[in-house]
Specification:
It contains ten helices and 27 strands. It has helices at residues 34-40, 64-70, 103-106, 245-258, 275-280, 299-303, 322-330, 385-391, 410-414, 433-439; strands spanning 5-8, 13-14, 44-56, 79-94, 98-102, 111-115, 121-130, 135-140, 163-168, 176-187, 199-202, 214-217, 222-231, 240-244, 268-272, 289-294, 310-314, 317-318, 337-344, 347-354, 367-368, 378-382, 400-405, 421-425, 428-429, 447-453, 456-462.
């Protein structure tokens, strides 16, 4: 039986700002999409990346069980380095050369080049990345040139059945346009593991190489950034997913204001209210988000939100699940007012609160662990709401988080990886970097290190 593959894609998209006559109704585009394509294609770009990757020297290192623990961070000496060239797509969204694409298109790249539809090529700098939304912002290295851009529509206006075009560079064959419809809105997709998992689904043909490109409405506006497909064999089967343009707009606004991607924070940690949970809290139907934890110094706590509350709407928009709630927060700017409709013990309440920036508290105090101990080579920091958002993790408790693991190193040999939370050493609980450094003193008896990874607790036993 074939395994179902959930693939991330790479697309390319460019759009022009030249004045063009566009169809004024759907009837006018019944015979040809050429006017729209001519209007938007110059703002869709190809993105070429060069990345230094490590490949296994031994076939057993590719065994699924081995890779499940070590991932891509294979121990030094067991790997060889090589350059990997990749292709994706992007969309020019500002005339000075600002490009939006998928984070997975440029992740870990040492070099990024952008090719326009008129064959001009530019080096590009990564301005900001956000693994949680799978979005990244690039800036072309130019000398005062201006570029065609693609306007963003309000993706909340998209309806199932709307005509759309997908523009990108599938399989590196060149810029390609495919047609389809909006198959679903507000779709959660298992292809993405970030904390903002909310897509527009389309049956327009999307293939590897399309990621980061454009999903365009019938009047030539950006409705979304194609990001992933559901496929059994790696090719399109008519189930593609695009990041809504409203999330792109919020990311661009954050970069313009903060210089980086910062999303608003409420301090609410919740889960979708399922049918089983609904019965336990006295609600007759599932839907919404039940609050399972609150940060003690958060806007939600100060506004009076309580653990066990069920959030049914935000600013009048119904919330069906946790993904919809995360999306509404991610598309609302910091400092904005939110009106939460909350169900609590048989009553429906309106709870106003102000969206805040996630605090850097405690200070991260980044360290590189060194010396004759098992975690040598690990870059760690104190976990805060701001850092948790950067890493795309949901964690309310203070602690020490792994930012990076040097290669080769003791920690790499043990399989320690980015995002691991260090809970304890030799039975001693770890709450901050200083405690961790003190607990890793040389030992004649060895070390017992407890980690949390994706909700699973792991224990590493290391001999002296």
């Amino acid at each position: 039986m074939k395994h179902t593959l959930l693939l991330l894609l790479c697309l390319v998209f460019a759009l022009p700002v030249q004045a063009q006559e566009v169809p004024r109704s759907r009837a006018e585009i019944a015979l040809s999409f050429a006017p729209i394509v001519k209007k938007v294609a110059p703002a869709v770009v190809n993105i070429y990346t060069r990345t230094l990757v490590r490949a296994a020297n031994s076939p057993f290192l590719n065994d699924p069980l081995f890779r499940q623990f070590f991932g891509n961070r294979l121990p030094g000496g067991l790997t060889r380095e090589r350059i990997q060239n990749s292709l994706g797509s992007g969309v020019i969204v500002a005339p000075e050369g600002l490009v939006v694409t998928n984070n997975h298109v440029i992740e870990d790249a040492q070099q990024v080049r952008v090719a326009l539809s008129d064959r001009r090529e530019y080096e590009a700098d990564v301005v900001s990345t956000d693994p949680s939304t799978d979005l990244a912002i690039l800036r072309l290295r130019t000398k005062g040139e201006t570029f065609p851009t693609l306007p963003l529509m309000d993706s909340d206006e998209a309806q199932v059945g709307d005509l759309v075009l997908a523009i990108g560079d599938p399989f590196a064959v060149g810029q390609t346009v495919t047609m389809g419809i909006v198959s679903a809105v507000a779709r959660s997709a298992a292809v993405h593991s970030g904390d903002v998992n909310y897509f527009i689904q389309t049956d327009a043909s999307i293939n590897p190489g399309n990621s980061g490109g454009a999903l365009v409405s019938a009047d030539g506006r950006l409705i979304g950034i194609p990001s992933a497909i559901y496929s059994r064999d790696g090719g399109s089967v008519g189930i593609g997913f695009a990041i809504p343009s409203n999330l792109v707009r919020a990311v661009l606004a954050s970069v313009g204001k903060e210089g980086k991607i910062v999303r608003g924070w409420t301090g609410i940690y919740g889960q979708t209210l399922t049918a089983d949970l609904a019965g336990s809290v006295g609600i007759d139907r599932p839907g919404g988000v039940i609050v399972k934890n609150l940060h003690p110094a958060s806007p939600a706590k100060e506004a009076g939100v309580r653990v066990g509350d069920v959030i049914r709407a935000v600013n009048g928009r119904e919330i069906e699940d946790a993904d919809a709630f995360s999306f509404r927060l991610a598309t609302t700017s910091i400092g904005s007012k939110l009106d939460l409709q909350v169900y609590r013990k048989g009553q429906v309440l309106n709870v106003p609160l102000t969206l805040a920036a996630p605090p850097e508290n405690p200070p991260r105090r980044e360290r590189l662990l060194q010396g004759r101990q098992p975690l040598a080579g690990v870059h760690v920091a104190n976990l805060s709401p701001a850092l948790a958002q950067e890493l795309g993790i949901e964690d309310t408790a203070e602690g020490v988080i792994v930012l990076k693991v040097d290669q080769p190193s003791n920690a790499a040999m043990l399989g320690v990886t980015r995002g691991d939370k260090i809970l304890g050493v030799n039975g001693r609980e770890i709450h901050n970097v200083e405690q961790l450094e003190g607990a890793l003193a040389p030992s004649d008896k060895g070390w017992r290190i407890t980690l949390s990874r994706g909700g699973t607790v792991l224990t590493l036993m290391v001999s002296p």
